[in-house]
Amino acid sequence: MSTNLEISLVFDEIANILELKGESRFKIRAYRNASRTIEGLTQDLVNIAKKDGLKDLPGIGDALAKKIDEIIKIGKIKYHEELKESIPSGLLEMLEIQGLGPKKTYKLHEELGIDSIESLEQACKNNELQGLFRMGKKTEENILRGIELYRLYQGRISLGKALPYAEAIVKSLKCIKGVKKAVFAGSLRRMRETIGDIDILVSSTDSNPVMDAFTGLDGVSEILARGKTKSSIIFGDVQVDLRVVHPESYGAAMQYFTGSKQHNVRLRELAIKKGLKINEYGVFRKEEKIAGKTEEEVYKSVGLSYIPPELREDRGEINAALNCELPELVKQSDIKGDLHIHTDWSDGKKSILEMAKAAKHRGYEYIAVTDHTSSMGIAGGLKKDRLEAQIDKIKKINKDLDEPNFRVLSSSEVDIRSDNTLDFHDEILSKLDIVLAAVHTKFSQDKESMTNRIISAIDNPNVDIIAHPTGRLIGKREPYEVDMDRVIKAAKKTGVVLESNANPRRLDLNDIHCKHAKENGVKIAISTDSHDSPQMDLMSYGVATARRGWVEKGDVLNSMSLYELLDFLGIDY
Ligand code: DGT
Ligand code: CA
Ligand code: CA
Predict the structure, then answer these.
(1) 187 lines ligand 1 (CB under 6 A)
(2) Residue 43: predicted pLDDT
(3) Nearest atom of ligand 1 to the alpha carbon of 263
(4) What would the CATH number be for the domain defined by 261-322?
(5) Low-confidence ranges of the chain (pLDDT < 70)
(6) What's the gap in Å between 292 CA and the centre of ligand 1?
């Protein structure tokens, strides 16, 4: 049996291969859409199939429904297997390199016989790409940089990929007889932006059935080790370690395996000073075990209040806990709205009304519609006339919705051009409820120019938020050169808010910058940058990153209620 996520990844890979082979756009889109639909489902596809409901799903016709049935029944799709055989496997890996789309990749394969990252690297070094389809020295340099970055992150996967894997595994292990608790620990529980391996902890008095189930999971490609208390597998393309512990030691094991290593070292030092010993089995005074059942107990036994996992990075949390100065971290339930939302007016998938309803359904009090502006060449980027029409449309939607406690705010994700000007004049910006500004082009400017470029937007009185301030794509594109110290100071001066983009591909601001902003009294907007309604769920990644940055409710712009926010923005109601 396959999970929704596994099936959605297979469809996505089919789309990638079709694209590599230059097949019809419509066919590619059909698989890509099916992959997204499946990924966004709240029900198990297996259950939907049982009730004969596949064909009722948007974008799933007869042919795709048949393929879903096939993978549910036999764990794979023949068409997918054939497609994979029809191209060198290295081509799919090449797609992971920033700046290499499927078209370019396939052409490189056809023209130069490149079939792997290694042969691509060699060809770039030998300047073989120059002259081919308008590629030059710069392209080669960019590809080489992309390869370097890819290798840097290789072996670590993104939080957004690891978390659904871990949740699926934990869910299966919880069903096993005798299992009291199953949770994930390690860097994943601390919600680090990339994950080396997934660590799972199970509390049970009988480890054998747990190990059987774990090593027998669907999706296991290799069993690295199997023991009585400890096993390791490769699941998909990531290593998963499992520990089974006795319920009496569960808290101590959770504490130990959550890490980080440095945090544990500090904790152990503190324990030693108090004449105690901490390990994964408990806290001991001489031979006597004085704590271990719960994590709270473990921290309490060394004189500390409970430290949330996101803080356990040895960044001052132990001292803060000793002095009762731990922050009260922002929570998902504090979030009252989403201030970065795209619609079908530019490159989003859904209408303004559909996004508004999805937000209301989540219990939000507001969204800001922040479609792109025209200069970046993004599909449907709005020109002045269209933005004015959108402002009117939003007024009408608010009127029709007639909800005193929900509001669609008119906004725009205005491009900050490389000449330090914005894509819209102040005259129209001043008509918007809230303005986001962001860099989308010319990432290669030097630090001084880029910093000035962003500060010029911060200094514009119409700008409220700087979106994804460092421009990075984790594992794909490094942040542009920018002096965040200066940006934060400028934001403080004019009261501009910095976004912490919640999309797990971005997480921008990152945890450290969030902390820095908070310490300097700069507010943060945690926003999803959603291009479709299910993406609004990504908010939890942004909240986690802000928590890692010690951010509290009061530091977060979109923890304000609707009327607090309207006051903050100076909007009449
Ligand atoms: P990762 O997997 O690289 O993203 O990072 P972690 O933090 O998940 O590290 P991992 O998987 O090697 O180990 C999981 C936790 O186990 C780690 O956070 C703390 C604990 N741990 C592992 N090795 C040691 C050690 O040598 N000393 C101490 N005190 N704790 C350790
Ligand atoms: Ca780990
Ligand atoms: Ca591990």
Answers:
(1) yes
(2) 78
(3) 29
(4) 3.30.210.10
(5) 1-2, 376-379
(6) 19
Q: State the Cα–Cα distance between residues 489 and 92, nearest whole angstrom.
A: 43
Q: Is the CB of 510 under 6 A from ligand 1?
A: no
Cα(420)–Cα(426) distance, integer angstroms: 14
Q: Which residues pair with 201 in a beta bridge?
A: 183, 243
Homologous superfamily, domain 157-245: Beta Polymerase, domain 2 (3.30.460.10)
Q: Which CATH architecture has domain 332-569?
A: Alpha-Beta Barrel (3.20)
Q: From CA 328, how far away is CA 518, in angstroms rounded?
A: 13
CA 423 – ligand 2 centroid, Å: 44
Task: Note the pLDDT of residue 241.
Answer: 96
State which amino acid sits at residue 315. Answer: R
Cβ(251) to ligand 1 under 6 A? Answer: no
- Taking the centre of ligand 3 as the mean of its atom positions, its distance from the CA of residue 371, in whole angstroms, is 41
CA-closest residue to ligand 1 atom 25: 261
SS3 at position 351: coil
Say which residues have a Cβ less than 8 Å from residue 175's Cβ, sequence separation at least 6: none
Fold assignment, 4-153: DNA polymerase; domain 1 (1.10.150)
Pull the structure tokens for residue 314.
């040895």
* Ligand 1 pocket check for 184: Cβ under 6 Å: no
- Structure tokens that stand for 331 in this block: 């929570």
Query: Ligand 1 within 6 A of 313 CB?
Result: no
- Give the ligand 1 atom nearest the CA of 186: 8
Ligand 1 close to Cβ of residue 458 (< 6 A): no
Paired tokens of 523? 């507010």
Q: What percent of the chain has pLDDT over 90?
A: 78
**Least distant ligand from the CA of 233:** 3
Residue extents of the structural domains in the chain: 4-153, 157-245, 261-322, 332-569
Q: How far is CA 395 from the centre of its chain?
A: 32
Q: Give the closest residue to 488 by CA, choosing from 522, 519, 512.
A: 522
- The structure's pTM equals 0.81
Q: Parallel, antiparallel, or unpaired for β 413-415 and 436-438?
A: parallel
Q: Is 510 helix (H, G, I), strand (E, B) or coil?
A: coil
Ligand 1 atom nearest residue 264's Cα: 29
Number of the ligand closest to the Cα of 186? 1
488 and 498 Cβ atoms separated by less than 8 Å: yes
The string of pLDDT tens digits covering residues 319-372 is: 999 999 999 999 999 999 999 999 999 989 999 999 999 999 999 999 999 999
C-alpha–C-alpha distance, residues 408 and 557, integer Å: 16
Separation of alpha carbons 262 and 544, rounded Å: 20
Angle between helices 78-85 and 4-20 (to 10 degrees): 40
